[in-house]
Design goal:
- The chain is globular.
- It folds into three domains: about 400 residues, Amino acid/polyamine transporter I; about 130 residues, no CATH class; about 80 residues, no CATH class.
- It is about 65% helix and about 5% strand.
- The protein is built from 27 helices and six strands.
- It is a multi-pass membrane protein.
Length: about 725
């Protein structure tokens, strides 16, 4: 029994979901980002150095002149993931993005896995862009920095150590450190700096496009055909282009620092996507009308193309734009990295000191410093060749998880968005007022297994001048939810049971009505597994499929059919659309199509990328089970709620709870009519610190209440 109880407790811990505060002014972060700031953050992350490198790779090696179509297709697919982010962000108005959405829908362990990999990826991404900045700068000045470093630091001999770079890239480390300093100084400062660099980048792209049109030879577009590599080349290019649009999630990370998130987030993402798509398409068209696609230099396409037509000076203009673009990219990577560390630490899954914010700048300075140290070390010493695909794979995993979270949230009852607490304009105050927020959390299947509805537990934070009667009322709400033994609660469950049984025509439908949340989660997981299998067969067994190999055809038909069948509950369960500031259209079709597109691209990653993902995930799981699970703020909140409910049940009832064991002792104890807040908190603190039972007094008797999740056991 002890092993079973221990296993059950671990299971409850790893699947517990997080309470979401709906008062947006109860954040220690500064609300100072306007809609324009959010849009520029998204543009800075999505463009990066891609417009100066990725355009040449796609047009020169994959799709030819049709590379512009590859960018359009990829942008559309990425936008599907972006609108899933939007629906989640408008319901869950806090920083954390994919980590937060996973915590609220799929539980704590899965959230830590996503958050941990997100931290790792953003460390490497920040370092990677910093290295790109250094390499581009060094190329402009004739490899001066590299030569000096090798000559005077390494005594003329480059490193040949596996995983390490060929020489310490000091410039890259300085760039990464500079970006982190800007982020630490203040969100508004870093946002304005990013806006300047992004503006320089966009102006450079505009000038490149203008000069390209002036010197264009449009015969290059049709000399070898507009589709020289066929539709397959366009799709291969689209898969590569997708990485260029990664970064829009930075806008979701900014939700807790936006002045008006309900307006700013949707507009910011839409504007960022439009601007990024236009820049990528303009860049691709420019390079394909300046030179034959076979002569494009993937490493520096614009420099080579302009030199070929005698405009050597343009390489300096391109260098300015590229360096400005990458500087904005580094700043945004540092911003997302700091918020990723901060939000996980705020939830107790990483050391709490990482969640401390500076009172003046209202930024997570310690988390930013930790990210800076890691980014600088990695950018100076580590070689990135073996982890490029891993970075992209984790991005796709995040997109898949967010798509699943968007569907789950839509099939839950309407979550009241905290955005109503914010003034409707970008000029609203950035002050962080305390307005006694309410918190909402799905109560799991415990309260919904006999009903088709989704009741929620409401945990009210008490004001400084609280009314004891209000406190007792709030405690009664929690008691009916956590103990599950009140007569009224049982009557409600009985009525729900009868309604569900008589309204359902089959056993399966009756089970779905009883367990709606679990049904949606299981349906999506099974759908994803069968979809992976079907797409893998279509990808790696295409030759056999063309030859109508019976086993392959049967496998595709079975896995594809099962993937579709698993979606059936999504078409019979009710959706909850009220109170959602932004809704994904055509739910659940668009999220499911987004999942399919992401899976199609994910199966193309090689085994090494998946192995690296599993290794980092395993390291994260060790950290979670040894530290995070035992220091979880959500776990402590639930423990305290259970203790308060136990105390209330024992002290306010004239007789023991029906499912509690009460031992009478210490008859000399002083009588009391209840438990005041300060005394209760003192007992709760003592019990948690010393693992002791909590003693309460009622009518001359002292009761010792030891809480468990979902029930109250009281003993000596």
């Amino acid at each position: 029994m002890g092993d079973v109880s221990c296993f059950r407790q671990i299971k409850d811990n790893i699947v517990r979901t997080r309470v979401v505060t709906t008062d947006l002014r109860s954040t220690p972060l500064q609300r100072c980002l306007s809609t324009a700031d959010l849009a520029f953050i998204g543009i800075g992350c999505m463009l990066g150095s891609g417009v100066y490198v990725l355009t040449g790779e796609v047009a020169g090696e994959m799709a030819g002149p049709a590379g512009s179509i590859s960018f359009l297709l990829s942008g559309f697919v990425a936008f599907l993931s972006a609108i899933c982010y939007l629906e989640c962000a408008t319901q869950l108005p806090e920083t954390g993005a994919s980590y937060l959405y996973t915590y609220v829908t799929l539980g704590e362990m899965m959230a830590f896995m996503i958050g941990w990999n997100a931290v790792v990826v953003r460390i490497f991404a920040s370092a990677l862009v910093s290295r790109g900045w250094s390499a581009y700068f060094d190329d402009v000045i004739g490899d001066y920095v590299r030569n000096i470093t090798v000559e005077f630091v390494l005594n003329g001999e480059e490193w040949s150590i596996p995983v390490f770079a060929s020489y310490p890239d000091i410039v890259a480390g300085l760039v990464a450190f500079f970006a982190c300093v800007l982020v630490a100084v203040g969100t508004e400062v870093s946002a304005k700096a990013n806006m300047i660099f992004v503006f320089i980048n966009i102006m450079t792209i505009a000038l490149v496009f203008i000069f390209a049109m002036i010197h264009a030879d449009f015969s290059f577009l049709t000399r070898h055909g507009f589709f020289p590599t066929g539709f397959g080349g366009v799709m291969t290019g689209a898969a590569a282009c997708f990485t260029g649009y990664c970064g829009f999630e930075a806008i979701a990370f900014s939700a807790e620092e936006a002045k008006n998130p309900s307006r700013g987030l949707p507009i910011g993402i839409i504007v960022a996507f439009l601007a990024s798509v236009l820049c990528y398409v303009a860049g691709t068209i420019s390079i394909t009308v300046l030179t034959d696609y076979r002569d494009i230099n993937p490493g520096s396409p614009f420099v080579t193309a302009f030199e070929a037509i005698g405009l050597d000076w343009m390489k300096y203009l391109v260098a300015v734009g590229a360096l400005g673009s990458m500087t904005g990219g580094v700043i945004n990577c540092a911003f997302c990295l700091a918020r990723s560390i901060y939000v996980i630490a705020r939830d107790g899954l990483l050391p709490a000191f990482l969640s401390k914010t500076n009172a003046r700048t209202q930024t997570p300075v310690i988390a930013t410093l930790a990210g800076a140290i890691l980014s600088v070390v990695v950018s100076v010493f580590i070689d990135f060749v073996v982890i490029i695909q891993f970075l992209s794979l984790v991005a796709f995993v995040e997109f898949v998880i967010v798509g699943i979270a968007a569907v789950i949230l839509r099939y839950r009852p309407p979550m009241r968005s905290g955005y109503s607490a914010i003034d409707g304009s970008d000029s609203s105050s950035c002050d962080n007022e305390e307005n006694n927020p309410s918190e909402y959390q799905d109560d799991g299947e415990a309260d919904t297994e006999l009903s088709g509805e989704y009741p929620r537990r409401i945990v009210k934070k008490k004001s400084r001048h609280h009314n004891p009667n209000d406190y007792n009322n709030a405690e009664q709400v929690e008691k009916s939810t956590l103990l599950g033994n009140s007569i009224e609660h049982r009557q409600q469950r009985t009525a729900s049971t009868a309604s569900s049984i008589y309204s359902s025509g089959s056993t399966n439908r009756r089970w779905i009505d009883k367990h709606p949340t679990t049904t949606v989660i299981i349906s999506l997981i099974l759908h994803l597994l069968f979809e992976f299998a079907a797409v893998a067969l279509l990808t790696f067994k295409m030759t056999e499929l063309k030859n109508m190999d019976g086993a392959v055809v049967f496998g595709v038909a079975v896995t594809g059919g099962l993937a579709l069948i698993c979606c059936w509950p999504l078409f019979v369960l009710p959706q909850y659309k009220e109170g959602i500031p932004f809704k994904v259209p055509l739910m659940p079709f668009l999220p499911l199509f987004s999942l399919l597109c992401n899976v199609v691209l994910m199966v193309r990653f090689d085994a090494l990328a998946w192995l690296e993902f599993l290794i980092w995930t395993f390291i994260g799981m060790i950290l979670y089970f040894t530290y995070g699970m035992h220091h979880s703020v959500e776990g402590k909140r639930r423990e305290e709620a259970a203790l308060r409910s136990a105390l209330t049940a024992v002290s306010q009832l004239g007789h023991p709870p029906r499912d509690a064991v009460i031992t009478h002792f210490d008859p000399e104890a002083e009588s009391g009519e209840g438990v005041d807040e300060s005394a209760e908190r003192e007992r709760i603190t003592k019990a948690r610190a010393q693992s002791l039972a909590v003693v309460v007094t009622r009518d001359g008797r002292s009761y010792s209440a030891t809480p468990t999740y979902g029930s109250t056991d009281a003993c000596v």
